[in-house]
Amino acid sequence: MSEHSSPFLGTSVGAGVPGAAIETAAKPTRREALVVIGTATAGSLAAGCGGTMSTGQCMGDPPSTAIIVSTAEQQAADKDKISRIGDTIVYITKDEKGYMAIDSRCQHAGCPTVPEKGTDGSYVGFVCGCHGSKYFLDGKVKNGPTVKPLVHPTMCRRASDGALAIDLLTPTSIDDRVT
After folding, report:
1. Is 48 in contact with 61 (CB distance < 8 Å)?
2. Number of domains the chain is built from
3. What is the DSSP string of 98-131?
4. What is the CATH number of the domain that holds 59?
């Protein structure tokens, strides 16, 4: 891609003109759209859930689009170090630093990943069923073809009831945790 091109532009053959190439707006992938939306609205969403990762507490009510993590799902992550959140593509995992949310779509081609167990039966990461990319339990790349870590949506803890809230529209650092 040239330095002046956009990831949302594609090349197609002009109608009726053999071999004529024109730039047309290509439909963005869901991930590209979410990144653009998340970047553009990060300031407005920060009032609801973002910006709290340093303290781990939601500032006010989480956005209405947030996924609320039940106590049972948190307990599953406490026990197994991983828990799928309902029927979503999101998992929460827990390590010695706290909880993190992970979007389970592979960064290579967007395929869903599934938890992978080690030889001792404990969860050790994620594996993509499409092309075999592997990720550690924190979402960092273990081996490719992918070179990008799994996306970490912003997560905070509601002070009112201790529930975790995940904001899929706002990615955060792979190193952020909620205690």
Report:
1. yes
2. 1
3. EEEEEE-B-TTT-PBEEEEE-TTSSEEEEEETTT
4. 2.102.10.10
Assess if residue 110 is contained within a domain. Answer: yes
Domain-embedded: residue 13: no
Match 């996924």 to its residue by tokens: 67
Round to whole Å and give the CA distance between 68 and 165: 5
Which pTM value belongs to this model?
0.65
What does DSSP assign to residue 56?
A: T
Record the tokens describing residue 19, joined without a space. Answer: 């071999």
Residue 99 sits in which domain range? 30-172
User: 25-55 burial, b for 16+ CB within 10 Å, e for fewer?
Assistant: eeeeeeeeebbeebeeeeeebeebbbbbbee
Per-residue pLDDT, 52: 37
For residue 55, what pLDDT is reported?
Answer: 40
Q: Which residues of the chain have pLDDT under 50?
A: 1-26, 36-55
